[in-house]
Design brief:
CATH architecture: Orthogonal Bundle
Number of strands: 4
CATH class: Mainly Alpha
Radius of gyration: 25 Å
Number of domains: 1
Structural class: mainly alpha
CATH topology: Preprotein translocase SecY subunit
CATH superfamily: SecY subunit domain
Strand order of the largest sheet: 1-4
Shape: globular
Strand content: under 5%
Order of helices and strands: HHHHHHHHHHHHEEEEHHHHHH
């Protein structure tokens, strides 16, 4: 039987959306933030020879640099102020969360610090973002300066301005993402990555059609690619909505002269609890360092640094080493993020506190062990699904040598973020409908009293 919230959601009408003025403001704020982000993707950093840089970019566009460019919404292609995107912040979040499970003081903050502990860890993440942003921006500035004719006036001024510009762009985007999460709809950081991918979709689709038109790719391969994209999208929707439901029961108890309780419900465990974060984490750790090395590989290197071009070649898009490393990191982050977000001891304690129990399982420690057992096996399915979605298209791209990057990772991010944002909008509408019903009920009650 559907819950009251599900019944309300099923009965939502356009009139409900029209009256939800607070939701209108949130959507408008989110759209404005995405527009600002897209404008920043077209503003190049100072001191760059655009023609020389474009030529250097075209030489690497078929490798990892093309994939980084897709995640940044084309900012890398223009070497814009938002070229680093939010990847340093994501990398910093990974490090802080890892230390939050291994470093005792931070683990205490995460488990016992409450809201204050969460804010402290968030502040540490921001500090680390600055450090990583400075490091990555410095590597990009040095690699640009080492390129042939890319920088108009090489020197200390260019290095300092480039590092400050790229790091400042990342911190500004991080702030914008946090504001969208608080004052808009959806997860701000995920929406920024989503907007970047969607912005380059038409260009890559047009490139695929052009390849088929010129005969560089057969029409059958183009049709197969379209069918694969539709199948992957359908599979993502199916698995993102899939749940493992555990039956929970609540005993009857007497409150005054009334007997309440005795109901049963379900504890939903998502197949993909990590959402889209696992591939984003894996991509952020793989792409940016390889990109910096890619620029260095094109420069005049001494003999002892001859290993750099070979390493860059092995980590190219579609190469076996890249696929294995990428798949392994996705599996790791699926389990890691699930362990951070789902605490079986806390869930078991909440069930016990409200009198609930799993049939056949003793409350307390045994319930926590059972929840951990079930969640581990559910996560195996989720990790296998995400890895297949992200890695299989990479294998096909490497096999057919396709020079564009509409892979499973990008489709997964677009579909997952879209579903999450739509769910949040629907939740806002349901909350508004609840408030409207309560207000009308109060008015009717006051009229009866009068």
């Amino acid at each position: 039987m559907a819950s009251a919230a599900e019944q309300l959601a099923a009965n939502l009408r356009f009139d409900t959306f029209r009256k939800a003025t607070e939701l209108h403001k949130r959507i408008a704020f989110t759209v404005l933030a995405m527009v600002i982000y897209r404008i920043g993707c077209y503003v190049p950093i100072p001191g760059i020879n655009i023609a020389a840089y474009s030529q250097a970019f075209e030489g690497q566009a078929k490798g990892l640099l093309g994939m980084v460019n897709m995640f940044s919404g084309g900012a890398v292609q223009r070497m814009a102020v938002f070229s680093l995107n939010v990847m340093p912040y994501i990398s910093a979040s990974i490090i802080v969360q890892l230390l939050g499970t291994m470093y005792p003081p931070w683990e205490k903050l995460r488990k016992e610090g409450g809201e204050a502990g969460r804010k402290t860890l968030t502040q540490y993440t921001r500090y680390l973002t600055v450090v990583l942003g400075l490091f990555q921006a410095g590597g990009i500035a040095l690699s640009l300066q080492a390129g042939d004719g890319i920088v108009d006036k090489p020197g200390l001024v260019f290095l300092v301005s480039t590092i400050a510009t790229l790091t400042g762009g990342t911190m500004f985007l991080t702030w914008v993402g946090e504001q969208v999460t608080t004052r808009g709809v959806g997860n701000g950081l995920s929406l920024i990555i989503f907007a970047g991918i969607v912005a380059v979709f038409p260009r890559y689709i047009g490139q695929a059609i052009s390849l088929a038109h010129t005969g560089a790719m057969s029409s059958g391969a183009l049709l197969a690619l379209g069918v694969l994209a539709i199948a992957v999208t359908g599979g993502i929707v199916f698995f993102e909505l899939s749940q493992r439901r555990l039956l929970t029961q609540y005993p009857r108890r007497q409150v005054g002269t009334r007997m309440i309780g005795g109901d049963s419900s379900f504890l939903p465990l998502k197949v993909n609890s990590s959402g889209v974060m696992a591939p984003i984490f894996a991509s952020s750790l793989l792409l940016l360092p390889a990109t910096a090395m890619g620029f260095i590989a094109n420069a005049n290197l001494p003999t002892w640094a001859g290993w750099v071009p070979e390493l860059v070649g092995r980590l190219q898009h579609g190469q076996p080493a890249f696929i294995l490393l990428y798949g392994g990191m996705i599996v790791f982050f699926c389990f890691f993020y699930t362990s951070v977000m789902f605490n079986p001891e806390e869930v078991a304690e909440n069930l016990r506190k409200y009198g609930g129990f799993l049939p056949g399982i003793r409350p307390g420690r045994r319930t926590a062990e059972y929840l951990d057992f079930v969640m581990s096996r559910v996560t195996v399915v989720g990790a296998a699904y995400i890895t297949a979605v992200c890695v299989l298209p990479e294998i096909l791209i490497g096999t057919f040598n396709m020079p564009f990057y509409l892979g499973g990772t990008s489709i997964l991010i677009v579909v997952s973020v879209t579903m999450d944002t739509v769910n949040q909008i629907q939740s806002q509408l349901v909350s508004h409908q609840y408030a409207d019903l309560i207000r009308k009920s109060g008015l009717r009650g006051s009229k009866r009293t009068n």
